[in-house]
Amino acid sequence: MKTKNNRNFSRIICVLLIVLTSASLVEAYPPDNAAVLYYKAFLILKEPGEEVKKMMTDLRKGKIKSNDQIRQCLDENRHVLEFVETAADVRECDWGHDISKGFDVLMPELSRIRLTAFMLTAKAQTLAEEGDHKAALGKCLTMHKMARHVSDSMIISYLVSVALNSLANNHIQDILSSMPQDLEVLAWLRGQLADASVDAPSIKAAMEREKEMSIQEIRKERITETILEMSSEDFVRNVGADALEKIRKGDAQFFEDNRKYYAGVMDEVIAATDLSYQQAHRKLQTLSARIEKDAKTNHAAIVAAVLTPASSRVRTLATRKKTLLNATRAAIEIYIVKAKTGRLPEKLPAGSPKDLFSGKDFEYTKTKEGFTLRCRGKDLDKDEIYQYEFKVAK
Amino acid sequence: MKPTDNSENFVRRGKAKVATDPQMDKRVLDDSFAAMDETAAGPSIVRMIAHGRAAKIVAAAVIIIAVGLLMNQPEPPEQKPPNIGNVTKSPVEMLSAMSLNMAYRRGGLEAMDDLSNEAFEKLGSKPAGVSVRELLTGSNGV
């Protein structure tokens, strides 16, 4: 009896081992790192010619309709788009950046991801023209997911992700304006956009990483190249050409002082990300002027004058991106009311997302063709108030 | 008759043929040296030129031409600030965060795209079809 039990136990163990080892032989697809799929997509990407690229730009701007050449380009790159869409659904994305290289880290993916996003917008537009609005919206949501993958690892990647989000939202706005008010699709889109806004790259993380990386660069052995690259004519005009000479001849103490000053400046920039747009903009503008003034008399401020990013502009872009997303989400609430009641609401539905330039509700106005959502606060860099127009398809 | 006509008739009539000999040469040279000595002692050559009407016109023309030339001279290339160096980059270096940042500062994301495209172009083309079937066909079944 005991022998029989032992034999059964051995059999079970053997079977378990076989199952476990064979499971490891089965390759999991998709992989758990989206970057693998993106890189595959970029390897087989057939870059469109200049003429088709221009057509795609015109298509994005609504100047033309989709045509045979654009469709052919999309068809030739259908595997690329499949890889990209699969990648976008993968949670994690590690591009394999060697951050220890500082600003020399290679980022070849940025422009490729933009190009594939342009193809996705062309695809979305084509699908919308064919009447498949949900699939078209799906392509836009893929762009939002790609933006999350581009990440906030540096300011430049953050800016690319902001551009992708804005591209996606602009197209969602166009599609919403041309599609019938389908409650099911609208409810699905509302949920998807709420998800997209949760893990969106953050300006704070981008600034923190920029600070970390720049501090590594503020060293005698690294700084000359960095300064050669980044110092602009404006810098020389405002701070003086001798400032560069001071950097070149700087000793260990000079760089230590500059690291401290730069870290202090970036701490203020990072703290400003928690303020409202108007407060942050004022603070960042003042800070920028102070650094420039200090750099003329205080040697510790010279490097900060070169390396500190145009933080107020970056903050404005971030606010603009989030405000456009909020306007799109508020518009969906309005379309949902229209789908339910057959009429546009008289006022903005309660709890609608806000205009982040002012921190207030959008100004909602019904028009002949649909409605507009107008910001109540200005883009302080451009001295401009944004207004988003939405049409209601009959 | 005009002085120029006189001179032409003089030459045409063959009166210009003057026989020379060493004595004549010496006399001419002596006269020339004497004239030169007088000149050195007399009014300066500059003053003489300045007093001639034709000379004044020529001088004015020279000044006008000189001014014209100076005005048409292309401006000397502006001295670039010492900080900006046109460092030649390899296509790979063109894709670094630094280069992309710089491109962005120059012309936004479009400039970044252009720089990347230039880098990819320099790096060479990539395969457009890489399915397993295509790869097997490419290797002739080996």
The radius of gyration over CA of chain B amounts to 40 Å
Distance between the termini of chain B: 107 Å
Q: Termini distance of chain A?
A: 80 Å
Mean pLDDT of chain B: 61
Largest interface comes to: A-B, 37 and 31 residues
In angstroms, what is the radius of gyration of chain A?
26 Å
Number of strands of chain B: 0
Structural class per helix/strand content of chain A?
Answer: mainly alpha
Helix content of chain B: 55-70%
User: What is the number of helices of chain A?
Assistant: 17
Low-confidence stretches of chain B: 14-19, 35-50, 76-87, 138-142
- Structure classification of chain B: mainly alpha
Relative helix content of chain A: 55-70%
**Helix-strand pattern of chain A:** HHHHHHHHHHHHHHHHHEEE
Q: Regarding quaternary structure, how should these chains be classified?
A: heterodimer
Element-by-element helix/strand order of chain B:
HHHHHH
Task: Summarize the main sheet of chain B.
Answer: none
